[in-house]
Amino acid sequence: MRQLIPVLVALAAACGRPGPAPGTVPAGEWRSFEGSWTAAGDRHAVEAGPGQQASVIDVSGSIFLTGERGLGVGFQGRAVAYTDGKAVSVGRAVWTDERGDRIFSELSGAELATGRRISGRFTGGTGRWTGIEGEYGFEWKYVLDTEGRIQGRVEGLRGRARIVPPEGGAR
Q1: Bridge pairing between strands 132-146 and 149-163
Q2: Is the Cα torsion angle 60, 146, 141, 137 positive or negative in sign?
Q3: Which pTM was predicted?
Q4: Dihedral sign, CA of 51, 52, 56, 60?
Q5: What three-state secondary structure class fits 128?
């Protein structure tokens, strides 16, 4: 019986150790993800030349991620972007998880229009996403674009991310 007690204590200690929280990315480990994003919002446009409109969009909606080793299941996403109506689109996005922790990213691509490829680069985060880095991309599809209101979705949302621990400290 005395020999069994240390084994039972070790098993109890092992069972009591918390594992990583769902959606938590272990420090330094790259995680791939894919998913979908539907968004709606406003477009403010100004004529920028013959047959050319520059515009600013502000959209938000649900992001659903899949994948065995992804970042979690869902986020609320918001993006603000500018397009010159010719060749350049730039913007920023924030993804907020169920706990209120956020992931920030820069967006870039060609003119913001149906079928255009947009790239994102993670620039940081809060809470469990502090130290995040990585990239993602998607193809934008308009569902509705009328009188300043837009709705759309993305296809082929894919990317990868990792958490970089702060210098001199473990996460």
Answers
A1: antiparallel
A2: negative
A3: 0.78
A4: positive
A5: helix
